[in-house]
Amino acid sequence: MLSLQHISKYYQVGGNKNYVINDISLDVDQGEFVSIMGPSGSGKSTLLNIIGMLDEPSTGFHYFADQAVHQLKEKQRSALYKQYIGFVFQAYHLIDELTVYENIETPLIYQDVKGSERKAMVADMLDRFNIVGKKDLFPAQLSGGQQQLVGIARALIAKPKLILADEPTGNLNSKQGEEIMELFRKLNKEDGVTIIQVTHSEKNAEYGSRIINLLDGRVESSKKF
């Protein structure tokens, strides 16, 4: 599904290259659940953003769904990730001016899904996450756990093949965090959704079928379960 070959990301500082990611090669199969760990500054979020095509590597080759991403124009990359990838962020990234319903609906508008179909799909998501009663509220009126559920519902509504989650339980209490991780496990096992998460939590990492440890922009270790 995904193959990174000798990916590096660096910034030119004076005459020196400051590497955020240094020569990472990584293959992820359809249906895997991969956890990426490492200390702050090890390149975890940058790697996730490159996988999700939100950022471009300085060097290397990136293949996703049989496409050579490194050869695509920005518009083509954007179309590819909107079709296949759902993002879940620690900071939720909900749109403050939109209601819960409208936030969840947004990806479908980008994909030109017809109005009646959008209505049915959003209703299904609201029901699935038990947030029907919150549909007309704005993000500021929700708890952190509820906002994260809305973020996940929005990520899932377009039926992505891959979910990228950056510290998805970082702002939640332990019970809410556990519920989110169980939801990811269910999506992975029952729906076959491929998940790549960045996490500081050993406990959350163990939900994955593989743990990759980064250090100073390189893969320090990779362990399958």
Automatic annotation (TrEMBL):
Highest taxon of source: Bacteria
Keywords: ATP-binding, Nucleotide-binding, Translocase, Transport
Record domain ABC transporter: where: 2-225
SMART domains from the UniProt entry: AAA
GO CC terms, sorted: membrane protein complex
Family: Belongs to the ABC transporter superfamily. Macrolide exporter (TC 3.A.1.122) family.
The protein, known as: Phosphonate ABC transporter ATP-binding protein
Organism name: Mucilaginibacter pedocola
